[in-house]
Design goal:
Elements (H helix, E strand, L loop, with lengths): L1 H18 L5 H17 L1 H17 L5 H38 L2 H7 L1 H14 L1 H9 L5 H8 L6 H26 L11 H26 L1
Helix pairs in contact: 2-3, 2-4, 3-4, 4-8, 4-9, 6-7, 7-9, 9-10
């Protein structure tokens, strides 16, 4: 049964990679007008479809989550976009963790033995705080955290809650970036106050995240 489920996931992943539009900012801008029209005509359906696509992308670790976050910022705004992306990203991360725990355990253990030992040491030493630190300033890639955490005894609801809080600052910053990018009409708009603030926030995000982690560790 597990092999069959894994085979289905592989097929779905391959089809998505083949038929998804190019993962670039140019492609994002190209489809933005059509997406805006759908959102204007069918706001609820558009939000639901976007949510499901985001969950699928994060669950299967398909490249494109950052572009989807920028798109959410341009279309849904900061408040609705934060709710959609935060819940979708956390649901996808949790599903990926559960897939690792119940379907891919042996493969993940063999493939990522070295980082798995580091994760185990961190969880034994610092518990849920270690997961929070990884989410806030990821030492490992997003997908790898999901896979490796599936092999730890962490409870699903705790994983969901800590991941949600840890990913929230980056989500808000990228949503704001999407809002500003959607306002670009000419190259001179790059020097607008909003764009300058966006670049500052993007640059400060990793520095502030590391500072928060240090403060929490000391306390």
């Amino acid at each position: 049964m597990r092999k069959l489920l894994f085979a289905i996931l592989v097929v779905v992943f391959a089809l998505l990679v083949i038929y998804m539009p190019p993962g670039s900012l140019a492609a994002l801008q190209h489809y933005q007008a059509q997406f805006s029209l759908w959102h204007l005509q069918h706001p609820l359906q558009t939000a639901v479809v976007f949510f499901l696509i985001y969950v699928l992308v994060t669950t299967l670790s398909i490249p494109g989550a950052t572009l989807l976050t920028l798109l959410a910022g341009s279309q849904f705004g900061l408040v609705q976009g934060t709710a959609l992306v935060a819940m979708a990203a956390t649901c996808g991360a949790t599903l990926a963790m559960l897939i690792s725990r119940y379907l891919l355990r042996d493969w993940v253990q063999r493939r990522f033995a070295a980082p798995m030992s580091a994760i185990n040491r961190g969880m034994e030493r610092e518990g849920l705080y270690y997961l929070f630190a990884l989410r806030l300033t990821p030492v490992f890639p997003f997908f790898l955290i999901n896979l490796l955490m599936g092999l730890t005894p962490i409870k699903t609801l705790r994983y969901f809650a800590v991941s949600l809080v840890g990913m929230l600052p980056a989500i808000v910053v990228y949503l704001n970036a999407g809002r500003e990018l959607s306002k670009l009409r000419t190259l001179s708009d790059i020097l607008s106050p909003g764009m300058i603030v966006m670049f500052i926030l993007l640059g400060l995000l990793p520095l502030v995240s590391r500072r928060i982690v240090r403060i929490l560790r000391k306390s």
